[in-house]
Design a protein that fits this description.
With about 400 residues, this protein is an alpha/beta fold. The protein has 2 domains: about 180 residues, Flavin prenyltransferase-like (Rossmann fold), CATH 3.40.50; about 210 residues, Rossmann fold (3-Layer(aba) Sandwich), CATH 3.40.50. Helices cover about 30% and strands about 25% of the residues. The protein is built from 13 helices and 22 strands. Helix 1 packs parallel to helix 2, helix 1 crosses helix 8 and helix 4 crosses helix 7. The protein is elongated, with a radius of gyration of 28 Å. The chain binds cytidine-5'-triphosphate. Cytidine-5'-triphosphate (CTP) binds next to helix 11 and strand 17.
């Protein structure tokens, strides 16, 4: 999934020939999972039709403060539009629009939106080469950058005038990847690696049977998605689970048994900055795995179980600068048990969920957690969706690292 997924993008189109490319731009944003609303300057409508843009964006498109021709004439509230947006992009930004933006002119809907917006604004200039080189254009661009807006530079090539030089609007796919990279570079977990264990483990008895547990991996996968959305490289060591990840910056390492999970975690531990162990690892495994299916007999069957290695404790024992987070699923003496696990496994934080709380634990879409840190500070949360819980967990981690 693109980092633009779920983002609300306000696209302002001004009147240059490059406006014809904005249909592809809107399509690209929508494909990336963003929600797009479009405002045009009146001149932009000569180059690209509102119908094309509203169809592609699946949202009404506006170019005036009210729609004169509409039977249900309505004021197009520029403030609402601007405040709705997570980011604004002005593309193409003509010399005229750049100059007006730089000077605070507000004589069309696009400019009023720009002035009202509190979000990050990108602008992609497009004009003939002499206009692009003109001192006043350069001054407008510099002023806009000084105001905190982000320039997506024009490129060189053949221009609509037939001249060859700088002034072409960046290609739609390049604009999209420019914005994606820019967002990624500002995310709090950029350049960090987060190692996560998730799901149950299966401990084989024979080729067809195993000892397992009811964990589905939901919490671990939600945590992996959250880490990825914050810009981290994520390594997700997952036991058997039907959950799916939503981001391309998540590398999944599928395992079955506690021993395999142990191996994989140790393989990546040195690369990790943060480790979050959500897996419900089996505490015992059969002493031997029968090579052939065990046949039914009338007599009772004994299976000898040996303890598995405690993965989290093993990395707690060797940790250097890694921030270690464990989970504790408890049924009684919850707080005490969780605190003692935190100490025993040398953790920086432990997430307690109690099976006494309705809606917490395995296979539910919700969870109710209590976060305990190294100083034994306790933070209790309400019952929430596992996606919301993952956000709370990272909010706490980001305060500590
Ligand atoms: N854990 C682990 N390896 C194990 C067992 C547990 O990495 N073999 C991790 C879990 O992923 C979790 C934490 O340790 O983050 C606590 O797991 P939990 O099952 O609650 O505790 P246990 O240490 O197994 O103790 P008990 O089952 O007695 O409560």
């Amino acid at each position: 999934m693109s980092i633009l997924s779920g983002k609300k993008i306000l696209l302002g189109i001004s009147g240059g020939i490059a406006a014809y490319k904005t249909a592809i731009l809107v399509r690209g944003f929508v494909k990336a999972g963003a929600e797009v609303k479009v405002v045009l300057t009146p001149a932009a409508k000569d180059f690209v039709t509102p119908l094309t843009l509203s169809t592609l964006s699946k949202n009404p498109v506006h170019s005036t403060f009210f729609d004169k021709e509409s039977e249900n004439e309505m004021w197009n509230n520029h403030v609402d539009l601007a405040l709705w947006a997570d980011l604004m992009l002005v593309a193409p930004a003509t010399a005229n629009t750049l100059s007006k933006m730089a000077n605070g002119t507000s004589d069309n809907l696009l400019l009023a939106c720009y002035l009202s917006a509190k979000c990050k604004t990108y602008f992609a200039p497009a004009m003939d080469l002499d206009m692009y080189q003109h001192t006043s254009t350069k001054k407008s661009i510099k002023t806009l950058q000084d105001y905190g807006n982000i320039l997506i530079p024009a490129t060189s090539g053949e221009l609509a005038s037939g001249l060859i030089g700088e002034g072409r609007m960046a290609e739609p796919e390049d604009i999209i990847s420019f914005i994606e990279k820019d967002i990624l570079a500002t995310l709090p977990l950029k350049n960090k690696t987060v190692l996560i264990t998730a799901g149950p483990t299966y401990e084989a008895i024979d080729p067809v049977r195993f000892i397992g547990n009811r964990s589905t991996g939901k919490m671990g996968y939600a945590i992996a998605n959250r880490a990825a959305s914050l810009g981290a490289r994520v390594i997700l060591v997952s036991g058997p689970s039907n959950e799916k990840v939503a981001y391309t910056n998540i590398e999944i390492r599928k395992v079955e048994s506690a021993d395999e999970m142990y191996q994989e975690v140790h393989k990546y531990f040195n690369e990790a900055d943060i480790v979050i162990a959500t897996a419900a690892v089996a505490d015992y495994k059969p002493a031997t795995i029968a090579t052939k299916k065990i046949k039914k007999k009338d007599a009772s069957l004994q299976i000898e179980l040996l303890p598995t290695k405690d993965i989290l404790a093993s990395i707690g024992a060797i940790k250097k600068s890694q921030f270690l987070v464990g989970f504790a699923l408890e049924t009684n003496n919850e707080l005490e048990n969780a605190k003692s696990k935190l100490k025993r496994k040398n953790l920086d934080m432990i997430i307690l969920n109690s099976l006494q709380d309705k809606g917490a634990g395995f296979a539910t879409a919700t969870n109710k957690i209590t976060i305990i840190d190294k100083k034994e500070q306790v933070l209790e949360f309400k019952l929430k969706s596992k996606i919301e819980v993952a956000k709370d967990i990272f909010d706490s981690i980001l305060h500590k690292i």
